[in-house]
Write a structure and sequence with these properties.
By secondary structure, the chain is α/β, with parallel strands linked by helices. The protein is about 50% helix and about 15% strand. A six-stranded mixed beta sheet has the order 5-6-7-3-8-9, with helices on both faces. The chain has a three-stranded antiparallel beta sheet with strand order 2-1-4, covered by helices on one side. A three-stranded parallel beta sheet has the order 10-11-12, covered by helices on one side. A hairpin with a 2-residue loop joins strand 1 and strand 2. Helix 1 (about 1-25) crosses helix 5 (about 145-160) and helix 16 (about 415-435) crosses helix 17 (about 450-455). The longest helix has about 45 residues, at about 270-310. It is elongated, with a radius of gyration of 36 Å.
Length: about 450
């Protein structure tokens, strides 16, 4: 009896240890399995590769990550798998995740059997726990019923009895090495890749994350892979340039290529739905560009008309009639003259939106004998709400063409921004052509529009 009691105690400790490993490991979650990423931002050096990206892979997903090289497909997959931590954002994982990356590595002495053992480790633990729990139940050990229930649940969820056979099936299907004693270092890169891929596909993972899985596969192996993925009962996110594979296994496409709003798009309807969605978006983009160009042309015409009115109006040629006009100079110019005479060495104007106003003001100042540089002040207006506020504060008048252009985009903030930048660019270019000594920008802690204007204008040599 004493020997039996010692054996029971050892069994108790062994099964508790095995069940603890199962409890702390990720087990298949079935319909609850998912990977949900939100607000993901990844920066390499100073270049944002991913910015505010949201994506979910559920237990039913058949998601292809697509886009030009360098758009962040592999980076996003590594974030989803947990192999790369983002600068910001959150990733939630429920259930088991099998990952196949493009890069390969192997440890000294690692064999085909080593990889297979790793892939079926949890099923083996579940079966060992189930055997010990069954033995304890037969002996009437207290708590054995609960151990048996926990071990059986884990074994069923892991499909533990069939785990090794499934790996062997995939090894055969991919044409991979099945010799468990063979060292990985003695295999070619392609053969090592097939073994690793087989170990992932043969295991019972809720979600598969695959990066270019057709690399190193011949036609027969590719056909087997496509069939295996089609029958996979869980979710899938895949990166591949193999269009035939995409047609067979992908239902949704997460496209990281540039878009109108700068965010990734999701296209449903399989491969054909993705292609059609891209075609429609391209058409919308072209239409928006053409509308923007037409708006730009209207703004150019409005500025030219204003310039024409200026050149044919009352403003005389530079240097003529100064003394006659000085006696009629507005009180504002006279006050400015007193400040200059008192030592002011530069004049910065308030903001304005009709260059006619500035050039007339400059002529009045010159006629009054003001010789210091007169620098125009510019504030790019990029939305209607801002315009109403600014014009009510300073009384600046706006050309009718500019207002009309903005009102045509009253429900489109992006369109208002582009119209405002276009108009400010034209305004600044005309001022530069009019030989102003410089331009002062009122940025108001919002530099994006000003930066766009500065990058677009042609500056004097």
């Amino acid at each position: 009896m004493e020997s039996l009691s010692s054996h029971d105690q050892a069994s108790r400790q062994s099964i508790q240890r095995l069940l603890h490993e199962l409890r702390t490991a990720s087990l298949p979650a079935g319909a609850s399995a998912h990977i949900r990423a939100s607000g993901i931002r990844v920066v390499f050096g100073e270049r944002p590769v991913l910015d505010d990206v949201d994506v979910t892979v559920s237990h039913r997903s058949r998601l292809a990550l697509v886009g030009e090289n360098g758009r962040g497909k592999t980076t996003l997959l590594r974030v989803l798998s947990g192999d790369l931590a983002p600068e910001s954002g959150h990733v939630e994982r429920v259930g088991t995740v099998g990952v196949v990356h493009q890069e390969l590595s192997s440890r000294p002495g690692e064999t085909v059997g080593t990889l297979i053992a790793e892939s079926v480790r949890l099923p083996r633990i579940a079966l060992a726990a189930l055997d010990l729990a069954t033995e304890s139940m037969e002996k009437g050990v207290e708590g054995a019923d609960a151990w048996y229930e926990a071990a059986l649940d884990a074994a069923l969820r892991l499909d533990a009895w069939d785990a090794e056979r499934q790996v062997d099936v995939v090894l055969e299907g991919l044409g991979a090495c099945t010799d468990r004693s063979r060292e990985l270092a003695t295999l070619s890169v392609g053969q090592r890749y097939r073994v690793r891929l087989a170990c992932v596909l043969g295991a019972k993972y809720d979600i598969l994350l695959l990066d270019e899985p057709t690399n190193h596969l011949d036609a027969d192996a590719q056909a087997f892979l496509a069939s295996r993925l089609q029958s996979h009962p869980g979710g899938l996110a895949i990166i591949t340039h193999d269009r035939a594979l995409l047609r067979k296994v992908a239902d949704e496409f997460f496209d990281l290529d540039p878009s109108m709003d700068g965010r990734p798009r999701i296209f449903a309807g399989g491969y054909s739905g993705w292609q059609e969605g891209r075609r429609r978006e391209r058409e919308r983009w072209i239409q928006a560009y053409e509308a923007q160009q037409a708006e730009h042309a209207r703004l150019v015409q409005a500025v030219h008309e204003a310039r024409s009115r200026l050149s044919t109006g009352w403003r005389p040629a530079k240097g003529t009639g100064k003394h006659q006009r000085q006696s009629h100079a507005p009180s504002m110019v006279q006050n400015l003259k007193r400040k200059v005479d008192a030592g002011a060495d530069i004049v910065l104007t308030q903001l304005f939106y009709d260059n006619d106003d500035f050039f007339r003001f400059r002529d009045r100042c010159q006629a009054a004998g003001i010789t210091v540089p007169i620098v125009p002040g510019i504030l790019p207006l990029t939305n209607l709400a801002q315009i109403k506020r600014i014009t009510s504060l300073c009384g600046a008048k706006l050309p009718g063409g500019f207002l009309d252009a903005l009102e045509r985009h009253s429900d489109d903030e992006t369109g208002q921004f582009e119209v405002g930048v276009d108009y400010a660019t034209l305004q600044v270019q005309e001022l530069i052509n009019g030989e102003v000594p410089g331009v002062h920008f009122y940025v108001l802690n919002k530099s994006q529009a000003t930066a766009r204007v500065l990058s677009a204008v042609t500056r004097p040599a």
